[in-house]
Write a structure and sequence with these properties.
The structure holds 3 protein chains of 3 kinds. By secondary structure, chain A is mainly α. In chain A, 48% of the residues lie in helices and 7% in strands. Chain A has helices at residues 36-39, 55-66, 86-89, 97-115, 117-123, 136-151, 157-174, 177-189, 192-195, 215-226, 233-240, 247-258, 262-274, 297-315, 333-339, 373-376, 387-398, 413-416, 426-433, 437-450, 485-494, 496-511, 520-531, 536-545, 558-575, and strands at 19-22, 27-30, 34-35, 50-52, 196-198, 201-203, 211-213, 328-331, 356-359, 401-402, 465-466, 469-470, 475-477, 480-482. In chain A, the strands form 7 sheets. In chain A, strands 1-2 form a two-stranded antiparallel sheet. Chain B has helices at 12-15, 60-70, 75-83, 93-99, 159-164, 180-188, 301-309, 312-319, 323-333; strands at 33-44, 102-104, 107-109, 195-201, 208-216, 234-236, 245-252, 255-258, 261-268, 272-287, 290-300, 336-338, 345-358, 360-362. By secondary structure, chain B is an alpha+beta fold. Chain B folds into 2 domains: 12-51 and 132-310 and 347-367, no CATH class; 60-117, no CATH class. In chain B, helix 7 packs antiparallel against helix 9 (323-333). Chain C is an alpha/beta fold. The longest helix of chain C has 24 residues, at 221-244. Chain C has helices at residues 9-18, 109-115, 129-137, 172-180, 196-209, 212-216, 221-244, 269-288, 315-321, 332-353, 411-420, and strands spanning 49-54, 70-71, 89-93, 146-149, 294-298, 356-357, 360-361, 366-371, 387-390, 401-404. Classes of the chains: A mainly alpha, B alpha+beta, C alpha/beta. Chains in contact: A-B, A-C, B-C. Chains A and C meet through helix 4, helix 7, helix 8, helix 9 and helix 25 of A and helix 1, helix 5, helix 6 and helix 7 of C.
């Protein structure tokens, strides 16, 4: 079997590398851990200037602009994870040839729906004089409004003229006004102005010689951060009027956005990214061992966790740390069978298996998001649980500590062979394996976390024994000892690295870059998080008002930029004549 | 709906390795332990062996010839008709002849609606030594004195298996040779409201008295990755009392039996609209994975007949069961509950394979008490 | 109207658009097959062809599934005859159709799950897989799709909606007349008229390339390179459209088949096989001559009426009647008919593979998607429905793989076919038959 989980730990063998710090939390951790932020030796001004929209952002934008009846099919180019987040990876990726072909196909499919008879009534503010001919006035009105939403700024005169002209030519050729507009619209949908978002700067009138983000760029930063979608007309309008440059104007928009129903979409997007749910695409479980892990479980498990998070953080305005202990969750019948919890709905026979609110009794080991299948099954092997993978994931995902990769040439036989009669439980197998000195250091810091989750098998089903031997779920996290999963949850809840990690991940998600070393801004955001009882909306607020979100990217030397521009330009137009 | 009302889940440690779902239902509120289940198999218990029929009944091909001769067709005519045979689609001349092969006052009538409109074709019935079942009448009667191949009980009554036993399509020795009953049940699993069971007693791991209930659920069962019924799913209890059954019983050496009683369950039009047994016997092994065994008694046979007669021609073409032949077999072999109006017995002894897997049962709102 | 315009390529195109009604007889590029024959010389690959090949009543559970997953699998005994084509065949096992409380319709629910990703009582309103694919790849050829049934009936599993099914041709002679009759135009001789929509699309893309200047104004070198990657992709896309505006390369492998003899149309297996082979050869020629890119073959019907001469024991009857043999562990007579299905599939593959195109064959640029109506006909089981694909669709699909996914919706295979063939969709189906999980293991 492919052993993707047991990493090679070369650093473990070097005693010198064994002391590190959970940096921003101030918590000192013994062991070969690296606080993630410290690894990224970024210059102070490393705000990325160009991000490609993620697949979800593209979808959300289309849906928000044209309404939910528009079907957006197609797989878009995949996203890339960097420094723990796809949001950071989006600053490094472009559009491949096959990717663009897909965008092009999807764009034409979307544009065709936008202009079809069902939708044109609501989406067009005007009607052409003659449906079978171009109509410049109506095309201009529609394309300028839609273009502003798609490009997230006003179109330049030249851009708009080009779009209108294209719509006219196409309408002429195809003898249909709407087909013409659809062609022009499709071009905008797959344009780099749509697919990439660029942070544009302008001289800052308040600070001579300095640059600031344009109002429109600020609007996009806000909107993609809080809603994971393009700015709405109100936000663009505020940006166009320069209101985002004033404290009052910014606060007004921020308040509006934090109370918008779209905030849920944004919060979900962050956690989907942070919890690495994209890994579900390739997750599989051994059917013989885990017959309850049906095709419906992966989607339901992710939804369980997201609903739990949204309920606690947004609806209840609760404490982030309570995610690790909350007895409140959402389950459907499939998940109920997996966890051994009775879940029914009041819908008729054959109705979809919807999630129901469920509250666990005090002391139930299944409480808290670490004990969801979205974590336990995701960080397990297809045929057996993995205390090591789970422990590593707790450290990396929730505490932002990088566990070094293991060295090569390690013999994993003892860990992998679940049939060995000498070692009935994972604890025994790991105990035998981790006696090797070069492995010991790292196992010491991850296994005691994962072993507390051993009451859950690789598919997150509950068990009390393995091969008839009672499971000992005791362990330790950074000096806090516990007897079982309930204790682990509490230890994570109380660990200062957990809240620091959440804040840092969110900053990094907002800016698209790792948090700079010793960032004062990051420190005060964490303080604000703490002062506000670790509530989520105040944390979002603190990041927006910290100016980290609006930090201007490095401004290239004007002349250099121009020179580079011309040379590349030649390259492009030369070939495509 | 008050989903969790009246429901109590034992602590984790008590759930234990068995992972058996535990509920406290109204009628068993006093019992110390209740386990609940969803029925995963229910089909006529067949045990077909070589030589247990004098002859196997004709295959559809031969039966069609016999029936066409019966309506006066000559062999060359039959050969011509067979050339047009299209698998049983309607509108075909041969189909019409076969469907309307009954005669009342010399006029053709639908033979499935009027099974006695043709003479008894005297289809073969089982003559072997074994049928699976129970000795329902306490007699080792002549003519149908069978032995159960597993319990070795003599005088076992399962005339339904005898009636069906010599049609190839109905024969089976599960699990290696699935039978018609399994095929039908397989079709219903993701559609028909599931059947639920509970066992309650002081300590179900020990010998002692128990109560067994059967009810219908409001939802169908779902399947696991391997196509088996998903264990530990929750079901709402259908408050319809017509499918509520309760038996007093005993556990001995990990198996349960009950005091005979009536068993009445609504089923599905596709299978049979209802099962109505009197003198019901149950024998189930209690295993960590669920319950496995048999339920037998005197089954009202006319609903069973109509289940075959309604799709009549399709069934004949597909399984070879001659529908009027089946009617005569059932009428002849019926062995209980005489009907003074017809002079025939209205029930036939029958035993069904019954399996169930652990499940949760939740009271639906209308019935929730306490 | 005043539109700033600096004499860009769009003007040239505009001229072309205005002249769209005039057939352009002269190709703008040399269009011949490249040296290995898999593509036009200009780089445009030969069009992909998709066949939905249906056979009723499945096979014997446990006897067709390869024992190992991934590459280098070994066929089970009921697929053994496909050995010579193994490197071009994928086997998909373990997947099912979900009823979700819908009463089952024996021999229909399963194929609905496979071909429409839904299960309904009565015809489903959703289009079938072949039609979804035809809407993407088949729009430019003479026939959007061609349907045939070799079991003597006009039964077809191809549908555009609940009320519109595409009836099958059951006579090879009639199919011949339809394709190669009076209306047939030799694709290599005909005049060429460029598609106005493609012209407009190309013009739209050209306009996008003018957006670069503003975009890169403020970017550093690394980000500029990323933007230029986009524009490189754009140029490739423009290039592809430009090729579509040119007269297509001659279809070197196109030849008109000789007139065929009338054969008996009916359910007797010997006739069914003869007719199927005639259909296979005709469809292969139709593909090779660019007459269609999508075909539906219904080999023996969902409720298969196929039988041996002089017998009324149809395949369908056998699946229910035939006991599972105690020693062999399967239904001997039913398995014999299943073997006829797979033999016929092999014949179909041979017909496509027999048409050479450069270094490859017509099969290489095809996907022949074989599906059935269930997992075990005796019990009408919808579990573990066997699916096969042959051909890589011109390199879009990895081949020689056994993919197993227990309990997953079988619609995953259909979704994957749609995606590799360019249908813009990220999910397919209703309720539990809905899936967004591509089988990435077979996507090239």
């Amino acid at each position: 079997m492919h052993e993707k989980g047991l990493f090679m730990w070369s650093k473990c063998a070097k005693p010198g590398a064994l002391a590190l710090v959970g940096m921003l939390s101030g918590a000192v951790v013994e062991g070969p851990l690296v606080a993630v932020a410290a690894e990224a030796a970024m210059p102070a001004n490393a705000t990325p200037a160009l991000k490609r929209l993620t697949a979800d952002q593209f979808r959300n934008a289309i849906e928000d602009i044209f309404g939910p009846t528009i079907r957006i099919g197609g797989r878009l180019d995949s996203d890339v994870r960097k420094d723990g987040l796809l949001a950071v990876g989006s600053s490094t990726i472009s559009v491949t040839a096959t990717g663009l072909e897909r965008y092009d196909t999807i764009s034409h499919a979307i544009a065709t729906q936008v202009v079809d008879e069902k939708n044109r009534e609501t989406l067009f503010g005007c009607k052409p004089v003659n449906v079978t001919a171009p109509d410049e006035h109506c095309a201009r009105e529609f394309l300028s409004q839609v273009g502003r939403l798609l490009y997230r700024r006003s179109l330049t005169k030249e851009e708009l003229d080009t779009r209108v002209q294209l719509a006219g030519e196409a309408a002429q050729t195809l003898s249909n006004f709407y087909s013409g507009v659809a062609m022009s619209l499709a071009g905008m949908l797959s344009s780099p102005n749509m697919l990439f978002r660029q942070l544009e700067t302008e001289p800052d009138p308040a600070k001579s010689g300095k640059y600031r983000l344009t109002g429109y760029s600020k609007a996009s930063q806000l909107s993609f951060f809080l809603w994971n979608s393009a700015p709405d007309p109100a936000l663009l309008s505020a940006a166009g009027k320069g209101e985002l440059h004033t404290d009052k104007g910014l606060k007004q928009q921020l308040g509006r956005m934090l109370n918008s129903p779209r905030l849920e979409q944004g919060v979900r997007a962050f956690f989907v990214d942070m919890l690495q749910f994209d890994a579900f695409d390739t997750l599989s479980k051994d059917a013989t061992l885990y017959p309850k892990f049906t095709a419906k479980v992966p989607a339901a498990a992710q939804e369980q966790t997201l609903r739990t998070i949204v309920d606690l953080l947004l609806t209840q305005e609760g404490d982030y740390r309570d995610l690790f202990t909350t007895p409140v969750t959402y389950l459907n019948r499939s998940l109920g069978a997996l966890y051994g919890v009775p879940i029914v709905s009041d819908l008729p026979n054959g109705a979809p298996d919807v999630l129901q609110r469920h509250v666990y009794a005090d002391g139930d080991a299944r409480a808290g998001i670490l004990m969801h299948a979205s974590f336990l099954a995701l960080h397990s092997h297809p045929g057996r649980s993995s205390p090591t993978l789970r422990g590593k994931a707790v450290r990396e995902v929730f505490l932002c500590q990088k566990v070094p990769d293991p060295p090569g040439n390690v013999d994993f036989t003892v860990v992998q062979d679940v049939s060995n009669p000498l070692y009935n439980t994972a604890r025994e197998r790991l105990g035998a394996h981790a006696t090797e000195p070069m492995c010991k250091g790292c196992h010491k810091i991850v296994d005691p976390i994962g072993l507390a989750m051993e009451n859950f098998d690789a598919a997150a089903g509950y068990r009390t024994s393995e091969k008839n031997q009672r499971i000992d779920a005791s362990g330790e996290l950074d000096g806090v000892k516990y007897r079982d999963a309930v204790g682990l949850n509490k230890a994570v809840h109380d660990n200062p690295a957990a809240t620091a990690c959440a804040a840092n991940r969110l900053i990094s998600y907002a800016t698209g870059a790792p948090v700079p070393r010793n960032s004062e801004a990051a420190k005060s955001i964490l303080e604000a998080f703490s002062k506000n009882a670790f509530q989520w909306r105040p944390l979002l607020s603190a990041i927006v008002t910290s100016q980290l979100l609006f930090q201007a990217p490095v401004q290239p030397q004007a002349q250099q930029a121009q020179a580079a521009d011309t040379s590349t330009r030649k390259d492009i137009s030369g070939e495509s004549k | 709906m008050r989903a969790m009302k009246g429901f109590s889940l034992r602590s984790w440690s008590a759930v234990g390795v068995l992972s058996v779902a535990l509920t406290v239902l109204l009628s068993q509120a006093a019992a110390a332990e209740t386990r609940s289940y969803v029925v995963s198999w229910f089909h006529l218990a067949t045990y077909s062996q070589e030589g247990d029929c004098k002859a196997i009944n004709p295959l559809p091909e031969d039966q069609i010839r016999i029936n066409l001769r019966m309506v006066g067709k000559t062999d060359p005519e039959i050969d011509e008709l067979l050339k047009t045979y299209n698998g049983g689609a309607s509108g075909n001349e041969m189909t019409n002849l076969l469907v309307n092969r009954g005669r009342i006052n010399g006029q053709p009538v639908n033979v499935y609606s009027n099974p006695t409109s043709q003479p008894d074709p005297k289809m073969n019935t089982l003559i072997g030594k074994h049928v699976i079942g129970f000795d329902l009448d306490g007699k080792v009667a002549k003519g149908h004195s069978f032995e159960d191949p597993f319990t070795h009980e003599k005088g076992v009554d399962n005339q339904l298996a005898v009636a069906f036993g010599c049609w190839v399509g109905m024969r089976g020795t599960p699990p290696s040779r699935p039978s018609w009953g399994q095929y039908v049940w397989e079709n219903l699993q993701e559609n028909m409201p599931a059947w639920l069971m509970t066992l309650s007693g002081e300590d179900l791991s020990k010998d002692g008295p128990i109560t067994v209930t059967f009810d219908r659920a409001l939802e169908h069962a779902s399947r696991d990755v391997n196509g088996n019924i998903l264990v530990d799913t929750a079901f709402r209890l259908d408050p319809d009392q017509r499918s509520h059954n309760e038996f007093k019983g005993t556990i001995k050496n990990g198996s349960l039996t009950v005091e005979p009683g009536r068993f009445h369950m609504l089923a599905d039009f596709f299978l049979i609209t209802k099962y109505d047994f009197t003198n019901t016997h149950i024998r189930l092994d209690i295993k960590p994975t669920g319950l496995e065994g048999y339920l037998g008694g005197y089954l009202e046979w006319l609903p069973f007949y109509w289940n075959f007669a309604n799709p009549g021609y399709t069934i004949e073409g597909m399984t070879g069961v001659d529908i009027p032949g089946l009617f005569y077999n059932l009428q002849k072999l019926a062995d209980a509950n005489p009907d003074p109006k017809t002079g025939f017995n209205s029930s036939i002894s029958a035993t069904f394979r019954l399996e169930a897997v652990p499940a949760f049962i939740v009271q639906s709102g209308a019935q929730a008490k306490n | 109207m005043s539109i700033a315009n600096g004499g860009t390529r769009r003007q040239v195109l505009r001229g072309m658009l205005n002249g769209a009604a005039i057939a352009i007889g002269t190709p703008m590029l040399d269009c011949f097959l490249n040296s290995n024959g898999t593509a036009f010389a200009s780089g445009e690959p030969l069009p992909v062809c998709f066949t939905s090949w249906f056979y009723g009543l499945s096979m014997s559970p446990g006897r067709w599934e390869p024992k190992t997953v991934g590459a280098n699998y070994e066929f089970g005994p009921e697929l053994a005859q496909l050995e010579a084509y193994k490197s071009k065949i994928n086997v998909y096992s373990g997947m099912k159709a979900f009823l979700d409380g819908t009463p089952p319709t024996p021999h229909a629910s399963g194929s609905q799950g496979v071909l429409q990703a839904t299960v309904t009582v009565g015809p489903s309103p959703d289009p079938s897989l072949d039609q979804i694919i035809a809407d993407t790849i088949g729009t430019r050829s003479r026939f959007r799709s061609l349907e045939v049934c070799s079991a003597g009936t006009t039964e077809s599993l191809s549908r555009r909606s609940a009320s519109v099914s595409n009836p099958s041709e059951n006579s090879p002679l009639a199919l011949y007349a339809r394709i190669f009759g009076a209306e047939f135009q030799d694709p290599n001789a005909a005049d060429f008229k460029p598609d106005a929509r493609v012209m407009v699309k190309k013009s739209v893309l050209s306009a996008v390339s003018e957006e670069r200047a503003r975009l890169v104004r403020q970017l550093g070198a690394a980000d500029k390179a990323r933007v230029d990657e986009y524009f490189t992709s754009l140029r490739q896309l423009e290039h592809r459209l430009a090729l579509q505006l040119e007269k297509p390369a001659p279809l070197a492998a196109c030849s008109v088949p000789g007139k065929i003899q009338e054969a008996t149309v009916g359910p007797v297996i010997e006739d069914v096989k003869v007719n199927h082979k005639l259909f296979a050869d005709l469809l292969a020629h139709a593909f090779a001559c660019g007459q269609t890119q999508v075909a539906n073959v219904n080999f023996n019907g969902a409720l298969s009426p196929v039988r041996q001469a002089g017998s009324v024991m149809t395949f369908h009857v056998y699946t229910h009647e035939d006991p599972v043999d105690h020693e062999l562990g399967y239904q001997v007579n039913a398995a014999w008919f299943s073997k006829q299905s797979i033999d016929a599939y092999l014949e179909f593959l041979k017909s496509l593979d027999g048409i050479r195109e450069g270094d490859g064959t017509l099969l290489d640029r095809s996907i022949v998607f074989a599906s059935t109506d269930g997992g075990f006909a005796k019990t009408h089981s919808l579990e573990n429905i066997p699916i096969l694909t042959a051909g890589s669709g011109g390199g879009r699909l990895k081949t020689g793989i056994h993919y197993a996914a227990k309990g997953d919706p079988v619609s995953r295979v259909g979704l994957t076919m749609q995606q590799v063939l360019g249908v813009p969709t990220d999910n397919w189906g209703t309720k539990s038959n809905n899936t967004s999980r591509t089988i990435t293991e077979v996507v090239a």
